[in-house]
Automatic annotation (TrEMBL), chains A, B:
SUPFAM superfamilies per the UniProt record, alphabetical: Recombination protein RecR (SSF111304)
Taxonomic source organism: Marinobacter nitratireducens
Domain Toprim span(s) in chain numbering: 80-175
Transmembrane stretches, start-end: none
Functional description taken from the UniProt entry: May play a role in DNA repair. It seems to be involved in an RecBC-independent recombinational process of DNA repair. It may act with RecF and RecO.
The entry's keywords: DNA damage, DNA recombination, DNA repair, Metal-binding, Zinc, Zinc-finger
Signal peptide: none
HAMAP family: RecR (MF_00017)
Zn finger region (C4-type): 57-72
CDD domains cross-referenced by the UniProt entry: TOPRIM_recR
Alphabetical list of NCBIfam families matching this protein: recR
Entry protein name: Recombination protein RecR
């Protein structure tokens, strides 16, 4: 290659980022070298620390720097409600909506027998233990509305059958501000089935 | 924020990359933490080394790890031809085309009096010194076909007037494989003016 070994290695290693191919990696490397060195050094340090230092929360499996994540450390968030999500990005989306004030459990995936992902791999036993210990009143199953997400939600619900815990699933329907013409058929069917009186 | 300080800092510092906003930075951070930690650590190291270690070639201003870049270190590339480009990405595009075997001079910009960028800032004096010392036979002005790029090319050509050096500029025309209907008017005008007999 035309450049120095250091530049080549930088371009090559930038490709570990999702959605970054050869061209984008080159553009990023040149940008940092030409006019973003302080940002690049900061990123180097942040990456190094995060890759070795970030672990999973002992209680909810969310990303954490210590035993417990920021949410589990907050006593106001341990109010007997657990929201089960597939990933930290789902948790973040809910947090950014700003309304939910309970705790979480992050599966880091969903059941997928074909890929060898069973209840143990996504921490369902740990979730059941926690529900047993903490005396949870409501479990919100916020897994994705996909075949695997639905199957995972039903599996968890089955395992908790008869324990007197309120188990809920997020409502499906037309996105707020969405146009009917752009909503897919499955969502529209769900929206019809879940229709409510206007006085509600 | 919902996450740990380490994750927050990682997301924040990923935004130094060009074209990466908050959402993309989050997606990148989660991807690395969930299933790309070895790649993330490698990137951390590559960034750290490149940000402190990469300098400019003493001869052509290209990125280099030592005094001279890979091209200037190659005696076969110092054949009396210098191709002047605005940036390392331009150099890379020419290298990847694979045909050119001479040397380069990387301006790292173009003349822009409004922004205070004069001949000194982009190394034109250094280029003229090098031409004097090395006895260059052809200077290819491959600055961009923009107002600034053209002005920079003309400035360099004027400075070398009467020195008996062949000064050339890359041909404008229809891209190979391009469709006429999608080519802009300026390019088409250049292509007409530069037309050649079919026997050529
Ligand atoms: Zn937690
Ligand atoms: Zn060089």
């Amino acid at each position: 290659m035309a450049f120095s070994p250091l530049v080549d290695e930088l371009v090559e290693s930038l490709r570990c980022l999702p959605g970054v191919g050869q061209k984008t990696a080159q553009r990023m490397a040149f940008h940092l070298l030409e006019r973003g060195r302080s940002g690049g050094s900061r990123l180097s340090e942040a990456l190094g620390k995060a890759m070795t230092g970030v672990r999973r929360c002992d209680r909810c499996q969310n990303f954490a720097d210590t035993d417990l994540c920021g949410i589990c450390e907050n006593p106001q968030r341990t109010n007997g409600t657990i929201c089960v999500v597939e990933s930290p990005s789902d948790l973040l989306a809910i947090e950014q909506a700003g309304d939910y004030r309970g705790g979480y459990f992050v599966l880091m995936g969903h059941l997928s027998p074909i890929d060898g992902v069973g209840p143990e791999e996504i921490g369902i036993e740990r979730l059941l233990d926690r529900i047993q210990q903490e005396g949870v009143s409501e479990l919100i199953l916020a897994t994705n509305p996909t075949v695997e997400g639905e199957a995972t939600a039903h599996y968890i619900a089955d395992r908790l059958d008869g324990r007197g815990i309120l188990i809920t699933r997020l409502a499906h329907g037309i996105p707020v501000g969405g146009e009917l013409g752009y909503v897919d058929g499955f969502t529209l069917t769900h929206a019809f089935r879940g229709r409510k009186p206007l006085s509600d």
